[in-house]
Each structure stands twice: as structure tokens, then as C-alpha cells.
Amino acid sequence: MPGIRKFPIGGTHLPENKDLTTGSPIRALDPPARVVIPLKQHLGVPCKPIVSPGERVSVGQLIGANKEGLSARIHSSIRGTVTAIERHSMVDHSECDCVIIERDQNTDNQTPAPDSRTPIKGPDAPVPDADTVRERVEEAGIVGMGGAAFPTHVKLQVRKDTPIDSVIINGAECEPFITTDDRLMQERAAELFRGLEIIRITVGARTGYVACEINKPEAIKRIVEESARWPHLEAVRLDTRYPHGAEKHLVKAVLDREVPIRQLPMSVGVLVNNVQTAIAVTDAVDHGIAVTSRVLTVSGSVVSHPGNFQVPLGMSLGDLVAAAGGPAEDDYRLVVGGPMTGILTDDFSIPVTKSTSGVVLIRPGEYADRSAEVCIRCGRCVSVCPMYLQPNRITTFVRNDMTEEAEEFGVNDCILCGACSFVCPSRRPLLQWLREGKAKSAVLADDRRRRNPV
Ligand code: SF4
Ligand code: SF4
Predict the structure, then answer these.
(1) Is residue 379 within 6 Å of ligand 2 at its C-beta?
(2) Which CATH number belongs to the domain containing residue 269 in this structure?
(3) How far apart are CA 182 and CA 205, in angstroms?
């Protein structure tokens, strides 16, 4: 196997805190009494409900779809009765129409039987033709489960002008505390490689890679063992460096290819997918199973029993945190996602969606709390930026409403990794300002389009 690979410039080392859960096997949670299932859990247009209050639904039953525009189907995660379709708050502070389902008293048959996922197909098993694969992936409602939530059936549609020669499964998982992909690689490596093989053949790529940072030794062991069975698939070891999980840095590290600024990996012949997404592809294509739950980590210095859980979609953060024993201290911060790029919230009614990669409870000031202290011009934010930007200057423009100048200095090239915020000795909320800068730039772009329609 080739040596350890890494991207060349920028990035930083973080306190990883993965030891809290790397040894915790994935535990399937019981269905909660009530789920709130958002009709938009993907990039694109929301689904329209196809069930009504009073209707009974089963696990995996289609409850939302939209054929007009980019979208991904939504299925029920529990067996029960639809009680309402109403607006509910989401973690990004938006609101979304949701299907509310109350669970049946009898909790038998709430989830697909575990043996419905066996046998797991090996390297000699045929892969259905590309149209059939895309159809099954679309029916299952699969989206990028690393956080991007882009509909996977669309990602598998390769354009003639951008052929794909390589597929990379992103197992870097460089966010502190989060061990979702780590555990999936340890426990479901065979399904992961089968999913990668299905994707590789569907998009016509020569080679597939599963890339994992070396801070996950058990996962590395499993993917190296598994890769020996698959002639066109390889396991790749990555150095531990934040943000290896950013797509452009992953492509650079694995294949030594530069993805040009403002372009996607497919511009250099590469498709990147998340670990859990590839396993969902196996579930959909080989077993006809829709996405009704996801694996995520609940961890942090303030969680009583950190662990990795298979969670029905629509379960509230409150129910989820309670399943992990609740907070062990009174004063804490709740972060959805990892502590570097996640979103702080105090709303425990927010539901788990297909893109919720983790929930972290940390002490105030541990990662996410920032204050607007003065910049001491130390330059650390510049030296760690993996996109070679000047976060200090960009954020000064953003804060002074100089959006065009922020654009000139590359605010839209920022990948929101948070490395600059993390190293800033003045604890300036650079990531928050960069997010604001991108939002202001989007408004400006809309305005430009309105004034100069093509
Ligand atoms: S400016 Fe953006 S890309 Fe650079 S370190 Fe900060 S968050 Fe990451
Ligand atoms: S790291 Fe913080 S204090 Fe140092 S230059 Fe950047 S913004 Fe200023």
C-alpha cells in the first residue's frame, strides 16, 4: 500500500477527542413517540407531502416527493399515524414544512429487520445498469450524508464533457469528537466497498479509493483488509491534519490533482462521496432499503454517555441527547455537526435530518464561543488557511459592508472550515463573519442578476 498522503500547505492540528466514542459500537435507538420529518433535507426544492393528517404510515413509506427540480424523496422513519403537516424550526434558523408522525403503541416491526441487509455482495456480484442504479438511489431518497445533502442520483449522472476516472470515499472525518464514519468503516466495510464499486461502475471510473486519516487505526485495518478483495478499489491512509475532509484537499492528497477555485472535483475527473452515502447506495441498490435513519455521534466533554447511534430521521435533538444519558453538567453549549463547522443552538426540538453528522455538548469557551476582540495582526489565520486566503482582511471588509472588496479577496473561495477561527489568539469569530460575508455576496449577486438579466 502507498505511504501516508497529505495536502501540502495550510491546515492545522486539533485536539481530536475521538477516544470518547471510537470504541463505541453503533447502537440502534428505539423509535421515539413522535418524529418531525422535514420535507426538505437536501439541496434543492422542498418535497410536497403525499400523505395527510390521520393517515397511517409504515417504516420506509414514501411521504414526500417533488418531480419539479432538484430534490430527494422523503420516507417515514417510524410506523404510526400522521398527526399534522406544519412549519418547524431547522438548525440553520430557517423554517420548513414537516410531517409529524406519532408512533404506534406497539413498537414491533418499526425498523427493517437486520437480516434484510444480507447477504452482502462481493466483487464478483454483478452491478445493475446505470439507469437502474440511479432509479433505485432516487427512490431511496439518498443525499450526501456528510453534510452537503446533494441528491446522489443527480451526482451519479455524469456529463459527457466531464468524464470521471476516479471515485473517492471521504473517510477523513477530521472534525473533533465525531466518529460516525470511523465506526461505519469498522463495522460495515464490506457494504462500503460494495457501494463504492456500484458507484465506480455507474459513473464509468477506473479506480475507487476509500481515504481515511491515520488517527482511526481500527478503521484503517478494516478498509485495508477489505480492499484486498476488490481489484479496482484501494484503501488510502491520510495524515491527520485539519481539514483533510474538505473535498479539494482530499483530491489533492489522494490523487495530487488541484481542483481549480470555484470548480467541483468532477472538473478534474473525480467524484467524492461520503462513507454513509456509499453504504446507503448498497442498501438501496441491493436490498431496496430507503433512507429512514442515519448513524451519528453524540459526544463532547459534557455528555454523560457518549456514543454512536443509528437514529430514526425526525427524532428531536432532545430525545437524542437523552438517549446518550443527557448532559453531565448544567452549563454547556449544544453544537449540531462538529465543533469546528457546526451550528450552535439551544432549541432541543430541532429534528435529526439526513445531513446531521453529529451532536456535540461542550463547555462554554471550549470551541465555538468567540468574542470580537481586536486583531493583533499575528497572521496565524493566514498561515493555516488551506485556501491561501487572508481571513483577517476579508472579515474586516465583511464587517464594514465592503462586500465587493471581500469578494475580491476571495470570500467565496472560503470553504468554511473554521481553521482560522480556531487558531486566532484573540478568539475572533472569523467563521461567523465569513458565513455572513458569503450571505452578503449572494444577495449582491442576486441584485446584479436582477439589474443585468442575461
Ligand atoms: S478563511 Fe475560510 S477556508 Fe480559510 S481557514 Fe478560514 S474558514 Fe477555512
Ligand atoms: S489570527 Fe486573529 S489576531 Fe491573528 S491576524 Fe488573524 S484575525 Fe488577527
Answers:
(1) yes
(2) 3.40.50.11540
(3) 25
